[in-house]
Amino acid sequence: MSQKNPSKSQQLLWVLNEVASAYGDCDQRLAYYFLQALFAKANNSGLQLYNTLKIVEEKNYCFDTYVKLMLKFQEVSPWTTFGHVASNGAILEALDGESNLHIIDLSNTLCTQWPMLLEALATRNDETPHLRLTLVVSTSLETIIIKEITKKMEKFARLMGVPFNFHVIGGLDHLEEIKKEDFSLQDDEAVVVNCIQALQRVRVEKRTDVIDMIRSIKPRVVTIVEEEVDLTSTRSDFGKCFEECLRFHRLYFEMLEESFHPISNERLKLERNRSRNIVNSLACDDGEIEEEYWRPDKASQWTKRLKEALCPFHFNDEILSDVQALLRRYNTSWSLALPQQEHEVGIHLKWRDETVVWASAWKPIAPSPQNPS
What is the homologous superfamily of the domain 78-229+293-316+343-364 according to CATH? Predict the structure, then answer.
């Protein structure tokens, strides 16, 4: 396909289609979803397929079912909770002793991160602080269920005895549309910005602008968690992009195969959720997707970009201990990787010695006396 030989491509795709199955082993499932994307690319129907998958997901969506799916996923795998524990630890350290807190959440995790943090705030030795949580919503699916998320969060905050205010910023086509003024910042509040798999949804040419906007908020800490896959610098070479996309999703699908029963409905749903990213990456042009843009980078690429506006906020020993305690709840395939060189920032979650998720924390660069801005 990268050699622009359509007849040969179609022939090979049909041969491979004979062994592909969404219900088979890991290789058969990978073949099924990747062939789906490759057929769409060959027929110039990537956007049509993407929109079809999106409509089907939204039509079949149920908030309670989705929450149960995420809880089950967290039970069998630290893929998401790794970033939650590391980020919450950095946030709690940065806000220690503050009484008026404001968390700006740019993530798409549907607030599954925050019950753990609310519980930690409720058990602080000093007076329980007031928490204002601002959630930025930039996908249609999040908009559909935002009322249910709001009720769940307010109910849990009352249960924990944490004074709580929940604010939602919606109506965005792209995350880069958000402005500092939208957050209604107050002088007496300590602000943090949380970005769990958020920056990968920002268009590449706008990422510096978004990071500069975050810096202008003057947060105590910025927490950033991203999956370790490069689908940005590989975009110009379809062969390399395909190889990198397959490498990463093979790890993800193998992890699901090890974590769930072969006929698990949860496993099937998680794999289907990933199918849109595969289509997005391989069958759609950068300008086609109006929302849910997905162009992840690796830690080294993020670090280089982030260091232009922010400096590292290193995870302390207590946070690292909490992350290691989390990983001990799972099988021995999981491990924690610490920075090995001076220029490296953050920590990695590894599965079978392959890095899959990167977690880091940052703070604004202190202005020099010559340049107080």
Answer: Vaccinia Virus protein VP39 (3.40.50.150)
